[in-house]
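Duplicate of earlier report; BioF2-like acetyltransferase domain-containing protein input re-posted below.
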Amino acid sequence: MIMRDKKFWDREIISHPSFLQSWQWGELQEKLGKRVFRFNVSGLLASAIEQKLPFGQTYFYVPHGPVIRAETQDAWTNFLKAFESPDDFKRPVFLRIEPLNREFHGKPIENVLSEAGFRLTKPVQPNVTLVIDLRKNEKEILGAIEHDARYSIRAAEKRGVTVEFLSGKDKERGFDIFWRIFMETNLRHELKTYPKIYYEEVATLEGECSSKIAIARTGGEAISAAIFIYFGERTFYLFAGSRAGYGRFNAPTYLLWQAIREAKKTGYRYFDFWGISHENKNWSKITAFKKSFGGEEITSPGAWDYVFNKPVYFIYNLAKRIIG
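Output:
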Protein backbone atom coordinates (compact mmCIF):
# COMPACT_ATOMS: atom_id res chain seq x y z
CA MET A 1 0.00 0.00 0.00
CA ILE A 2 1.47 3.35 -1.06
CA MET A 3 1.08 6.05 1.59
CA ARG A 4 0.20 9.68 0.88
CA ASP A 5 -0.79 10.69 4.42
CA LYS A 6 2.02 12.87 5.79
CA LYS A 7 0.53 13.15 9.29
CA PHE A 8 0.25 9.36 9.62
CA TRP A 9 3.80 8.91 8.32
CA ASP A 10 5.28 11.49 10.69
CA ARG A 11 3.49 9.89 13.64
CA GLU A 12 4.73 6.39 12.81
CA ILE A 13 8.30 7.35 11.87
CA ILE A 14 9.16 9.93 14.54
CA SER A 15 10.69 7.37 16.94
CA HIS A 16 12.86 5.78 14.22
CA PRO A 17 16.58 6.37 14.90
CA SER A 18 17.29 7.83 11.45
CA PHE A 19 16.01 10.85 9.54
CA LEU A 20 16.47 9.08 6.18
CA GLN A 21 12.96 7.61 6.43
CA SER A 22 11.32 10.93 7.33
CA TRP A 23 8.76 12.56 5.03
CA GLN A 24 10.95 15.66 4.71
CA TRP A 25 13.95 13.64 3.54
CA GLY A 26 11.76 12.07 0.87
CA GLU A 27 10.66 15.54 -0.23
CA LEU A 28 14.32 16.58 -0.42
CA GLN A 29 15.02 13.64 -2.74
CA GLU A 30 12.07 14.66 -4.92
CA LYS A 31 13.44 18.20 -5.20
CA LEU A 32 16.67 16.64 -6.45
CA GLY A 33 14.76 14.87 -9.23
CA LYS A 34 14.15 11.43 -7.68
CA ARG A 35 10.78 9.69 -7.39
CA VAL A 36 9.92 8.56 -3.87
CA PHE A 37 7.26 6.03 -2.89
CA ARG A 38 6.20 5.44 0.70
CA PHE A 39 4.94 1.95 1.52
CA ASN A 40 2.97 0.62 4.48
CA VAL A 41 2.80 -3.16 4.12
CA SER A 42 2.07 -5.62 6.94
CA GLY A 43 3.74 -3.42 9.56
CA LEU A 44 6.76 -2.51 7.41
CA LEU A 45 7.05 1.16 6.47
CA ALA A 46 9.49 2.16 3.75
CA SER A 47 10.31 5.41 2.02
CA ALA A 48 11.79 3.99 -1.18
CA ILE A 49 13.82 6.11 -3.60
CA GLU A 50 13.71 5.11 -7.25
CA GLN A 51 17.21 5.01 -8.73
CA LYS A 52 17.79 4.99 -12.49
CA LEU A 53 19.91 2.41 -14.31
CA PRO A 54 20.92 2.35 -18.00
CA PHE A 55 18.42 1.33 -20.70
CA GLY A 56 15.38 2.48 -18.77
CA GLN A 57 15.92 0.09 -15.85
CA THR A 58 15.57 1.08 -12.19
CA TYR A 59 16.08 -0.16 -8.67
CA PHE A 60 14.70 0.98 -5.33
CA TYR A 61 16.75 2.04 -2.33
CA VAL A 62 15.31 2.19 1.20
CA PRO A 63 17.90 4.07 3.30
CA HIS A 64 17.89 2.96 6.94
CA GLY A 65 14.66 1.09 6.43
CA PRO A 66 12.16 -0.35 6.30
CA VAL A 67 10.86 0.79 9.66
CA ILE A 68 9.41 -2.21 11.47
CA ARG A 69 6.19 -1.33 13.29
CA ALA A 70 4.74 -4.86 13.51
CA GLU A 71 6.33 -8.30 13.15
CA THR A 72 3.67 -10.18 11.22
CA GLN A 73 4.50 -13.61 9.88
CA ASP A 74 3.94 -12.74 6.21
CA ALA A 75 5.42 -9.23 6.42
CA TRP A 76 8.43 -9.74 4.14
CA THR A 77 6.49 -11.75 1.54
CA ASN A 78 3.84 -9.04 1.30
CA PHE A 79 6.46 -6.31 1.31
CA LEU A 80 8.23 -7.80 -1.70
CA LYS A 81 4.95 -8.30 -3.56
CA ALA A 82 4.39 -4.53 -3.40
CA PHE A 83 7.47 -4.11 -5.61
CA GLU A 84 6.87 -7.14 -7.84
CA SER A 85 3.43 -6.09 -9.12
CA PRO A 86 3.45 -2.29 -9.14
CA ASP A 87 0.77 0.01 -10.53
CA ASP A 88 2.57 3.32 -10.00
CA PHE A 89 6.08 2.46 -11.24
CA LYS A 90 8.08 0.06 -13.35
CA ARG A 91 9.09 -3.25 -11.77
CA PRO A 92 12.65 -2.70 -10.47
CA VAL A 93 15.70 -4.83 -11.19
CA PHE A 94 16.29 -5.13 -7.45
CA LEU A 95 15.35 -3.67 -4.07
CA ARG A 96 18.04 -2.50 -1.64
CA ILE A 97 17.16 -2.10 2.03
CA GLU A 98 19.10 -1.11 5.17
CA PRO A 99 17.04 -2.07 8.23
CA LEU A 100 18.25 -0.82 11.61
CA ASN A 101 16.43 -3.47 13.69
CA ARG A 102 18.63 -6.28 14.94
CA GLU A 103 15.85 -8.86 15.37
CA PHE A 104 12.53 -9.91 13.83
CA HIS A 105 10.25 -12.37 15.62
CA GLY A 106 13.06 -13.07 18.09
CA LYS A 107 15.46 -14.13 15.32
CA PRO A 108 18.53 -12.24 14.06
CA ILE A 109 17.26 -10.13 11.21
CA GLU A 110 20.14 -11.30 9.03
CA ASN A 111 18.68 -14.83 9.19
CA VAL A 112 15.18 -13.55 8.47
CA LEU A 113 16.32 -11.58 5.44
CA SER A 114 18.34 -14.51 4.07
CA GLU A 115 15.34 -16.80 4.41
CA ALA A 116 13.20 -14.23 2.58
CA GLY A 117 15.63 -14.24 -0.35
CA PHE A 118 17.72 -11.14 0.35
CA ARG A 119 21.47 -11.15 -0.15
CA LEU A 120 24.03 -9.07 1.76
CA THR A 121 25.71 -6.32 -0.26
CA LYS A 122 28.09 -3.40 0.25
CA PRO A 123 26.61 -0.80 2.63
CA VAL A 124 25.47 2.52 1.22
CA GLN A 125 25.29 4.27 4.58
CA PRO A 126 27.95 3.62 7.25
CA ASN A 127 26.79 0.58 9.20
CA VAL A 128 28.62 1.65 12.37
CA THR A 129 27.88 4.88 14.17
CA LEU A 130 28.66 6.46 17.52
CA VAL A 131 25.90 7.71 19.83
CA ILE A 132 26.05 9.78 23.03
CA ASP A 133 23.20 9.41 25.53
CA LEU A 134 22.24 13.01 26.30
CA ARG A 135 20.12 11.93 29.27
CA LYS A 136 23.35 11.84 31.26
CA ASN A 137 24.31 15.04 33.01
CA GLU A 138 26.75 17.37 31.27
CA LYS A 139 29.57 16.57 33.69
CA GLU A 140 29.28 12.84 32.86
CA ILE A 141 29.27 13.53 29.12
CA LEU A 142 32.31 15.80 29.39
CA GLY A 143 34.09 13.27 31.61
CA ALA A 144 33.72 10.57 28.93
CA ILE A 145 35.56 12.73 26.41
CA GLU A 146 39.24 11.91 25.93
CA HIS A 147 41.76 14.06 27.82
CA ASP A 148 43.23 15.68 24.69
CA ALA A 149 39.79 16.64 23.39
CA ARG A 150 38.83 18.13 26.77
CA TYR A 151 42.05 20.14 26.70
CA SER A 152 41.16 21.38 23.20
CA ILE A 153 37.75 22.51 24.43
CA ARG A 154 39.27 24.47 27.32
CA ALA A 155 41.94 25.96 25.04
CA ALA A 156 39.33 27.12 22.54
CA GLU A 157 37.38 28.83 25.31
CA LYS A 158 40.51 30.62 26.58
CA ARG A 159 41.35 31.77 23.05
CA GLY A 160 37.94 33.32 22.59
CA VAL A 161 36.34 30.92 20.09
CA THR A 162 32.56 31.40 19.84
CA VAL A 163 29.91 29.22 18.19
CA GLU A 164 26.68 30.46 16.62
CA PHE A 165 23.75 28.17 15.68
CA LEU A 166 21.61 29.37 12.79
CA SER A 167 18.07 28.15 12.11
CA GLY A 168 15.13 29.28 9.99
CA LYS A 169 15.85 32.15 7.60
CA ASP A 170 19.16 32.85 9.36
CA LYS A 171 20.56 29.78 7.62
CA GLU A 172 20.50 31.68 4.33
CA ARG A 173 23.31 33.97 5.48
CA GLY A 174 25.18 31.08 7.05
CA PHE A 175 25.18 28.70 4.11
CA ASP A 176 27.73 30.58 1.99
CA ILE A 177 30.11 30.63 4.97
CA PHE A 178 29.59 26.91 5.54
CA TRP A 179 30.05 26.11 1.86
CA ARG A 180 33.29 28.06 1.53
CA ILE A 181 34.82 26.32 4.56
CA PHE A 182 33.40 22.91 3.64
CA MET A 183 34.78 23.05 0.09
CA GLU A 184 38.17 24.27 1.31
CA THR A 185 38.31 21.25 3.61
CA ASN A 186 37.30 18.78 0.91
CA LEU A 187 39.79 20.16 -1.58
CA ARG A 188 42.55 20.06 1.05
CA HIS A 189 41.86 16.41 1.85
CA GLU A 190 40.85 15.39 -1.70
CA LEU A 191 37.39 14.24 -0.61
CA LYS A 192 34.42 13.68 -2.90
CA THR A 193 31.29 15.80 -2.52
CA TYR A 194 27.73 15.90 -3.82
CA PRO A 195 26.59 18.80 -6.03
CA LYS A 196 26.12 22.07 -4.14
CA ILE A 197 22.33 21.92 -4.53
CA TYR A 198 22.24 18.82 -2.31
CA TYR A 199 23.82 20.67 0.63
CA GLU A 200 21.61 23.70 0.00
CA GLU A 201 18.51 21.52 0.28
CA VAL A 202 19.79 19.88 3.47
CA ALA A 203 20.42 23.33 4.94
CA THR A 204 16.82 24.39 4.27
CA LEU A 205 15.19 21.41 6.01
CA GLU A 206 12.43 22.48 8.41
CA GLY A 207 9.61 20.75 10.25
CA GLU A 208 9.81 17.31 11.85
CA CYS A 209 13.22 16.87 10.20
CA SER A 210 15.12 20.13 10.44
CA SER A 211 18.68 21.40 10.18
CA LYS A 212 20.91 24.04 11.72
CA ILE A 213 24.18 25.56 10.57
CA ALA A 214 26.84 26.09 13.24
CA ILE A 215 29.71 28.52 12.71
CA ALA A 216 32.77 28.85 14.95
CA ARG A 217 34.61 32.19 14.93
CA THR A 218 37.63 33.85 16.42
CA GLY A 219 37.92 37.62 16.32
CA GLY A 220 34.90 37.70 14.00
CA GLU A 221 36.59 35.36 11.49
CA ALA A 222 34.67 32.17 10.60
CA ILE A 223 37.12 29.26 10.92
CA SER A 224 34.90 26.16 11.23
CA ALA A 225 31.34 25.25 10.24
CA ALA A 226 28.97 22.30 10.33
CA ILE A 227 25.42 21.23 9.48
CA PHE A 228 23.39 19.28 12.02
CA ILE A 229 20.07 17.52 11.47
CA TYR A 230 17.39 17.18 14.14
CA PHE A 231 14.78 14.43 13.99
CA GLY A 232 12.72 12.73 16.67
CA GLU A 233 14.87 12.26 19.77
CA ARG A 234 18.17 12.68 17.94
CA THR A 235 20.66 15.23 16.72
CA PHE A 236 22.91 14.16 13.83
CA TYR A 237 26.39 15.50 13.03
CA LEU A 238 26.25 15.46 9.23
CA PHE A 239 28.74 17.74 7.42
CA ALA A 240 31.64 19.81 8.73
CA GLY A 241 34.78 21.63 7.70
CA SER A 242 37.52 23.92 9.03
CA ARG A 243 39.97 26.42 7.61
CA ALA A 244 43.68 25.72 7.38
CA GLY A 245 46.05 27.72 9.54
CA TYR A 246 43.80 27.95 12.59
CA GLY A 247 44.66 24.67 14.31
CA ARG A 248 45.71 26.32 17.58
CA PHE A 249 42.12 27.47 18.13
CA ASN A 250 40.72 23.88 18.16
CA ALA A 251 37.52 25.17 16.58
CA PRO A 252 36.15 21.84 15.19
CA THR A 253 36.39 20.22 18.64
CA TYR A 254 34.84 23.21 20.39
CA LEU A 255 32.05 23.51 17.80
CA LEU A 256 31.14 19.85 18.22
CA TRP A 257 31.13 20.12 22.01
CA GLN A 258 28.84 23.15 21.83
CA ALA A 259 26.55 21.23 19.47
CA ILE A 260 26.31 18.38 21.99
CA ARG A 261 25.47 20.88 24.75
CA GLU A 262 22.94 22.67 22.56
CA ALA A 263 21.21 19.39 21.64
CA LYS A 264 20.96 18.42 25.30
CA LYS A 265 19.59 21.83 26.34
CA THR A 266 16.92 21.74 23.65
CA GLY A 267 15.63 18.35 24.82
CA TYR A 268 17.18 15.81 22.46
CA ARG A 269 18.01 12.45 24.03
CA TYR A 270 20.75 11.21 21.71
CA PHE A 271 23.61 12.70 19.71
CA ASP A 272 24.51 10.63 16.63
CA PHE A 273 27.93 11.17 15.01
CA TRP A 274 26.63 9.67 11.74
CA GLY A 275 29.12 7.02 10.87
CA ILE A 276 32.59 5.77 11.74
CA SER A 277 34.76 3.06 10.21
CA HIS A 278 37.51 0.87 11.62
CA GLU A 279 38.27 -0.66 8.18
CA ASN A 280 38.32 2.30 5.79
CA LYS A 281 41.73 3.97 6.05
CA ASN A 282 40.33 7.15 4.48
CA TRP A 283 38.05 7.45 7.51
CA SER A 284 40.75 6.90 10.14
CA LYS A 285 41.19 10.56 11.15
CA ILE A 286 37.49 11.44 11.27
CA THR A 287 36.77 8.19 13.14
CA ALA A 288 39.45 9.00 15.73
CA PHE A 289 38.08 12.54 16.05
CA LYS A 290 34.52 11.34 16.64
CA LYS A 291 35.58 8.58 19.05
CA SER A 292 37.46 11.11 21.17
CA PHE A 293 34.03 12.31 22.35
CA GLY A 294 33.09 8.96 23.85
CA GLY A 295 29.69 7.44 23.16
CA GLU A 296 28.51 3.95 22.30
CA GLU A 297 29.21 2.20 19.02
CA ILE A 298 26.04 1.00 17.28
CA THR A 299 26.27 -1.51 14.43
CA SER A 300 23.40 -2.02 11.98
CA PRO A 301 22.76 -5.13 9.83
CA GLY A 302 24.03 -3.40 6.68
CA ALA A 303 22.57 -3.32 3.16
CA TRP A 304 20.58 -6.18 1.61
CA ASP A 305 19.39 -6.72 -1.97
CA TYR A 306 16.37 -8.62 -3.20
CA VAL A 307 16.72 -9.39 -6.91
CA PHE A 308 13.71 -9.35 -9.25
CA ASN A 309 15.68 -9.52 -12.53
CA LYS A 310 18.75 -11.73 -12.13
CA PRO A 311 20.35 -11.27 -15.59
CA VAL A 312 20.27 -7.46 -15.39
CA TYR A 313 21.40 -7.52 -11.74
CA PHE A 314 24.40 -9.66 -12.76
CA ILE A 315 25.33 -7.19 -15.53
CA TYR A 316 24.88 -4.25 -13.12
CA ASN A 317 27.27 -5.76 -10.55
CA LEU A 318 29.78 -6.77 -13.24
CA ALA A 319 29.81 -3.19 -14.57
CA LYS A 320 30.27 -1.83 -11.03
CA ARG A 321 33.30 -4.06 -10.49
CA ILE A 322 34.85 -3.04 -13.82
CA ILE A 323 34.24 0.69 -13.37
CA GLY A 324 35.21 0.58 -9.69
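Residues 6-125+301-323 form a domain with the Aminopeptidase fold (CATH 3.40.630.30).

Merging into the original ticket.
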